[in-house]
Amino acid sequence: MTGRSPRWMSWPRLLVVAMVLVWCLLASPVPTSLRGSGAVLVAFLVATGVVLGQNSQWRVWRRTSQLDERERQARDNAYRLAFRAMGIGIFVLVVTASIADALHGQTRGPLAFADGPRYLIAALLLFGLLPTVILTWPEARSPAESPSSTPSGRLSGISAAMRPALAGLLVLGVWGAALWLVPAGTVRAIVVPSPNLSMSGGTCGAVQISRQLGDGLGAALNISTNICWNGRHAWDGDRSLGPAGKYPFPPVEGNPPTCSLGIDSSDFEPISSESCTEEHYPSGELRIVAQARVSSGIDGWLSRTIRASIAITAKGKVLKGD
Amino acid sequence: MTSSSPARTRSWGWIPVILLSLVIGAGLALGATTTNTFGLSNLLTFIYVALCAATALVVRRVTAQPGNWLGRRRVRRVVVLLVVLSCLLMVALPADGLGGTVLLLLLFLALCNVVLARATAQVAVSLPRPLDERQGSLRDRGYRLAYWLLAGIAGLLALVTYFAGSGARAWLGTALVSGPFIAFVVLAICLPTMIVAWIEPDQVMPAPPETRSHVWAVRVAAVMVATSLLVPLLAAIGVEVIPAQATQLKRYSSPAPKGSGCATLRRTTEIGFWFEARFVLDTEVCWNGHRARYLYGMNRSDCMASDWVLVSISTSQCVRRTKSNGTVEFNYTAWIHPDVLSFLARRLRVSVAVDRNGKVERTK
After folding, report:
1. Residue A124 — very low, low, confident or very high, per pLDDT cuts 50/70/90?
2. Are B194 and A92 in contact (CB under 8 A)?
3. Out of A83, A115, A127, whose CB is closest to B146?
4. Residues 187-216 of B with CB under 8 A from A
5. Hey, are the CB atoms on A72 and B140 less than 8 Å from each other?
6. Is A41 helix (H, G, I), strand (E, B) or coil?
7. Which of the residues A29, B141, B285, B306 could staple to A99 if both were Cys, CB 3.0 to 4.6 A apart?
8. What is the DSSP string of A255-291?
9. CB spacing of A123 vs B147 below 8 angstroms
10. Could you give the angle at which helices B212-241 and B100-119 cross, rounded to 10 degrees?
11. What's the Cα-to-Cα distance from B134 to each of A83, A254, B120, B166, B340, rounded to whole Å?
């Protein structure tokens, strides 16, 4: 065993710094949305965790009887520090979630931590990676300097150099496959009458439609739009009524009018090709159909379309959603 | 052989002690600073928090042999189970029903932690002395198990509540500002000690002889622990037994229309010491020989304490009425519960009656 002191800018230490920065980005209140890059960040953290695990010969996970005295002492010191750091990490996550919530203009406080998949993932990664990261820092060696007696040079035919990349790809693949296989949640739609939206002869309100894949860990199609109704028709609140209180834009075959959309990007899966159309029926009913394409982040591989539609009666009642 | 050397290993074990003291102090100070008129009580609160922090540091520095009784694994396991039960009770408490129960549980947990620290000879915390191989091995195993146990509990809880639906998430959101979070903080501090106490076998080795200075250090630590635990209990009992301190009723004449008179009446009543409540009767009454009437100070909004520290107050009666003979009277009755030992209660009555000629008939 060598007695050399660790080099300040060794590869493992650079990786630790990169991991800390990426984890901080994941847990940070700013930016308020990761715009679909969250799965890539998680894959990066898992892959670098595998690199550090290999570099430390997985000492954190090995039995005490498999370690010599110096290795055992280093591992136990890492666990002692990790135990203290874990409590501080949880506290930091709760605080940052509350700050992010405030930046969104909400006042849920710690509930934002419980409701945010981003913080759930950050906490789980913290628990899983912390001892390995702490173990790496004081005795970092670059892989080339690692002892040649590494017990896990090859495993099941996969070289050590390939394993981190495979772990990252596995995360993205499992995430994408889950996105593809998990059924989309039910459409949630609420109409909130708004006194700020007024139109002569009609009542207006804000409509919020949401449909989630994987309970927020996949993607979420969140639509906000304004509608009005007057008992005879329901129509897009951002347009005005035509003469005699009739809807001014009769449906045109093959060219449906588009509704105004506000789509929130998901933290973990990017949403693209979103569209929203309106359909008007003789009964005065308005049907809003929104759809978006969700991809797993690898060039559209394992992409999927999610769709949400609701119908609003001429009296402002949400009729159905699918 | 020693497993760690204090000369080479810097101890950061005092950080959680300070953090916990700050959290408790902030909570106490928050309760104490309802208004800023209780200067002495606020000072006492901060002195108490400083005493707790000093006690924790002294206890961590002083090592004591567990003795025959605490050396038994069965006894240690009972104490560990008591800590677990207390944490579960804290989790089960409704968020709006905390207050005194949490303070009592925290005191109990502090006592249990001191007992466990002694039972394990404080091997789970960093000490200014080297540990032997057996102790070092116990401590390290304790930390490894504690890490995965706490990470497992927290991770599983977060996962289950996230996927269980919005109701479960709402519970977790509330839990992060109530009893469950306090239980998490307690475990984040005490869990390694609890695990060492649980896994350590019966100690059959005779304790080594102690030096005279060490014996004194242990006594000082014991006195500080006893003081830290007893002072809040005595203050709570004081709410029940210390006589109420009431000032004389002060009467100030105030301008009045011709043929009538007006006066401002003031009186202050204080209950308890440190854990205390203050009621101020401050009312203006006018009279004209036929009847008396109040101008202010006898409304429902006046039926409350002006200041209170570490007590909760529940109103049982708040009545103002004018009798047929023209006397106006005001009665306010309240129960005062100390936040520690909240089953204790002290009844306080504030009462004043002024007749149609401006004479104060009675006051309490």
Report:
1. very high
2. no
3. A83
4. 188, 191-192
5. yes
6. helix
7. A29
8. -PPBPP---PPPSSS-EEEEEEEEEE-TTS-EEEEEE
9. no
10. 160
11. 21, 81, 12, 48, 41
Cβ A109–B188 below 8 Å, yes or no?
Answer: no
> Which phi and psi (to 5°) does residue A237 adopt?
-70, -15
Report the residue of B143, B156, B178 to disrupt the A interface, i.e. the one with the largest count of A CBs within 10 Å. B143
CA distance B176 to B169: 11
- Kindly list the residues from chain B whose CB atom is less than 8 angstroms away from the CB atom of residue A79: 140, 143-144, 147
The stretches in chain B having pLDDT less than 70 are: 1-39, 60, 63-68, 95-101, 126-129, 204-209, 362-364
- Spell out the residues 6+ positions from residue B339 whose beta carbon is closer than 8 angstroms to its own: B31, B99, B100, B103, B236, B275, B310, B311, B312
Please tell me the distance from the alpha carbon of residue A95 to that of residue B364, in angstroms, as a whole number: 49
pLDDT digits over B6-46, tens only? 434 444 555 556 666 666 666 555 555 544 455 677 778 77
Per residue in B39-78, pLDDT (tens digit) is 677 778 778 877 877 787 777 677 666 666 777 888 889 9
Q: Does the pTM of the predicted model rise above 0.95?
A: no
Q: Which residues contact A203 (CB under 8 A, 6 or more apart)?
A: A193, A228, A229, A230, A316
Complex prediction ipTM: 0.73
> How far is Cα B120 from Cα B110, in angstroms, rounded to an integer?
15
Residue with tokens 């998949």: A117
Residue B4 has a CB neighbour count (10 Å cut-off) of 20
Alpha carbon B323 to its chain centroid, in Å, reads 44
- A218-273: pLDDT as tens digits: 777 767 777 888 888 887 766 554 444 455 444 444 444 555 554 555 677 777 76
Which pLDDT belongs to residue B113? 84
Rounded to the nearest angstrom, the minimum Cα separation between A80 and chain B is 6
